[in-house]
Structures are given as structure tokens and as C-alpha cells.
Write a structure and sequence with these properties.
Radius of gyration of chain A: 19 Å
Distance between the termini of chain B: 18 Å
Number of helices of chain B: 1
Largest interface: A-B, 31 and 23 residues
Helix content of chain B: under 10%
Strand content of chain B: 15-25%
Radius of gyration of chain B: 10 Å
Order of helices and strands of chain B: HEEE
Largest sheet of chain A: 2 strands, antiparallel
Number of strands of chain B: 3
Shape of chain A: globular
Oligomer: heterodimer
Strand order of the largest sheet of chain A: 1-2
Shape of chain B: globular
Number of strands of chain A: 2
Helix content of chain A: over 70%
Strand order of the largest sheet of chain B: 2-1-3
Distance between the termini of chain A: 19 Å
Chain lengths: 302, 61
């Protein structure tokens, strides 16, 4: 049996090497600073050379192609989901700097989806339109992914569209998207996929784009951390963040589970053990919550 | 660069501005106080935004 993300979060905050965490005093960038950083880190998805990627993909075994497709499809579909489901948060800006930053994030998500669309068309070889490729990629996804992105994320966006001034809805969205989807799941997947490709010297064009995507997402997560740290000064909001995590983490734990496996099974993803992957995701979430100043609640299966 | 310089040199995350101070380390991330950035393992990542060690640059501010 492997320790799932859910098992790890069931123990709550396990403390640190020292009694006093320094993370709560970390100075965070504000939305204006993050917007300015976005201008410096801009990149172009359409000119990345995928020539060697095509050769590498053709040389993969059927099993390697299948494993890689499962890992990448969650990002392809995820980027599209976020692009369309981010409008509510953009509308919920509280000042001009935040509006500017949130608008850049929505543009980033569209560009990420473009990178994956191009890769699936030119390297994986999915014919047809962008929409058709997305439909095919969806076939690779598991139920937990669909619940998180098609239900929880969509609901969170809809509540903000209904009332962009609803701070509780905004806190729920940022917890869902920036903390769980992007900060816990996506950054973990990015770490291992990038590491695999670099270690095996494959898919250089894909990796070039994926590294840029990671940089964008680091900036996004930095915004979410800043926002929740500001709002969680109020104990009721901090409790709300904890409640949302209790609701979502049992679902999120299932997103990492590959086809044919169950939550709790021991497996490998691109050669990395499920224990290692879950521990990475747990550490990322628990440290970030310390920066925000919220205790990780003990989470159990629903 | 002398070992003293290595120990006091601070590093900044280019994605979010988080500063790694060797005097504090990152106990929550398994890095003991007093650890020079050069001795931080390559799989360590920024506690705020998740950026990797290679995304940090020397910081003299």
C-alpha cells in the first residue's frame, strides 16, 4: 500500500525540524510586482521547434507513449478548463493592479493550452481541430480529474460570475485553483514530467514550453499565496480555507492515480514511485499553508 | 568564493521574490539553519511558489 496524498493530509500538520516555522514571515510579492514580472517573463508558444520531439515520440515504445499521453492529457485539458473557468476571478478584482495581474493569468492559461494543442497536433499526431484533440485527450483522464475540473472548478467560477464582490466565493476559488489544482497537483506533475524528459534527453521542444509554463504557474501560485495570506488575517476566512481543503483533498488525491490503479495502490509514474509523488505534493501544500498562516486540517476520506 | 561568503550569500527566487537566507535555512523543507544554498539538494523547491533551485539567483539586496 502506498501513502496517498489523502493519507498524508489525514495526519494534519506534522510540525517541522524546528519548533518555530519561519515561513509565516516570508515577504510576498503583491499583484503589481507580479504583473511587472509577467512583462519580463513573456514567451511565445508558436515558434518552439518540435522537430526532435517528433523523432523522440516515434522512437518511444507503445507503453511509453501511453504513459506520457496520460500524464500530458491532464495538463492539456486542465489548461483549457482553467482558461474558460478563470473569467469569474478576473471579474472579482479589488483594485487595478490585481485586475492587471489576473488578466495576465487568463492569457497565460490560453497560451499554455496552445502549447499543448500544438504538441498534440504535430508530435502526438492527433488530426482535426483543437476541439477534437481536446475531446480525444479527455479519454485519457480519470473520474477524480473530471470531478475536480468539471464540477468543483466550474461551480467556483459560476459563483464568482453570479457575484464578483462575494469575498467568500473568491476565497473558495483561489483555494480550489491556486492551492489545490495549480499549487498541489500541477506543480507536482510538472516537476516529475520535466525531470523525466531532462534525465532521458527527450522532447526538448515540449520541455522548453513546459518550463515556461512552470514559471508562469509559479507566479500564479505566488498570487494565490499573497491573496489568501491577506484574507486569512480574519479567522473566519482561514477556517473557510481549511473547510475547502477538507472538501477537495479527497478528490485531489485521486487525480494522480493512473489507469487501472486504485487509490492506495503502489505504482510508478514515469519511473517515480507513488510514495515519492504524493510526498512531494503534500510537502508543497503544507509549506505553502504555513506561509499563508493556515494550519493544514486533518483530512479523511468522504 | 570563500566558504564564509558561501554561507552568508542570500538567494532570491526569480518567480516570486522569496529569499533563501542560509542563516535560517528552510526547516519545513528539510534544510537546516546554516545550510549554504550550494548545499541545498537539487530537488528542493521554493516554499511559496514551487520554483526549483535553479530558478534562484544570488541576492545582495
Amino acid at each position: 500500500m502506498t501513502k496517498t496524498l489523502l493519507d498524508l493530509t489525514a495526519q494534519g500538520d506534522v510540525g517541522t525540524m524546528t519548533d518555530e516555522s519561519k515561513l509565516a514571515s516570508v515577504q510576498l510579492m503583491n499583484p503589481q510586482q507580479l504583473y511587472e514580472l509577467w512583462e519580463k517573463q513573456n514567451w511565445v508558444s508558436q515558434t518552439i521547434d518540435l522537430t526532435k520531439d517528433k523523432e523522440d515520440w516515434a522512437a518511444f515504445t507503445e507503453e511509453e507513449r501511453s504513459n506520457m499521453a496520460w500524464n500530458l492529457s491532464s495538463f492539456f485539458v486542465g489548461e483549457e478548463r482553467v482558461t474558460t473557468q478563470f473569467t469569474g476571478l478576473v471579474a472579482a478584482y479589488e483594485d487595478q493592479s490585481e485586475e492587471a495581474f489576473l488578466t495576465t493569468q487568463q492569457v497565460d492559461e490560453a497560451r499554455h493550452a496552445q502549447h499543448f494543442n500544438r504538441f498534440y497536433e504535430q508530435v502526438v499526431g492527433y488530426d482535426g481541430t483543437f476541439d477534437k484533440r481536446l475531446e480525444r485527450a479527455r479519454e485519457d483522464l480519470n473520474e477524480a480529474f473530471l470531478i475536480l475540473f468539471d464540477e468543483h472548478l466550474v461551480d467556483a467560477c459560476k459563483r464568482l460570475l453570479d457575484d464578483p464582490r462575494d469575498i467568500e466565493a473568491k476565497v473558495d476559488f483561489v483555494t480550489t485553483y491556486h492551492m489545490v489544482i495549480e499549487g498541489t497537483l500541477a506543480l507536482t506533475g510538472q516537476y516529475y514530467i520535466t525531470d523525466y524528459c531532462e534525465q532521458h534527453d527527450v522532447l526538448p521542444g515540449f520541455v522548453e514550453g513546459f518550463r515556461n509554463i512552470s514559471k508562469d504557474e509559479h507566479r500564479h501560485v505566488a498570487y494565490g499565496t499573497w491573496y489568501l495570506k491577506e484574507k486569512c488575517q480574519e479567522p473566519a476566512i482561514a477556517a473557510r480555507v481549511q473547510d475547502k481543503l477538507v472538501e477537495l483533498l479527497p478528490v485531489a488525491a485521486g487525480v494522480f492515480v493512473p489507469p487501472g490503479m486504485q487509490l492506495g495502490d503502489t505504482y510508478e509514474i514515469l519511473g517515480y514511485s507513488s510514495d515519492h509523488v504524493n510526498e512531494f505534493a503534500f510537502t508543497a501544500l503544507s509549506r505553502r499553508l504555513k506561509v499563508i498562516g493556515v494550519e493544514l486540517p486533518a483530512v479523511t476520506a468522504a | 568564493m570563500s566558504s564564509d561568503t558561501l554561507t552568508v550569500q542570500r538567494w532570491i527566487c526569480e518567480s516570486c521574490g522569496m529569499i533563501y537566507d542560509p542563516a535560517e535555512g528552510d526547516p519545513d523543507g528539510g534544510i537546516a539553519p546554516g545550510t549554504a544554498f550550494e548545499d541545498v539538494p537539487n530537488d528542493w523547491f521554493c516554499p511559496v511558489c514551487g520554483a526549483r533551485k535553479r530558478d534562484f539567483a544570488p541576492y545582495d539586496g
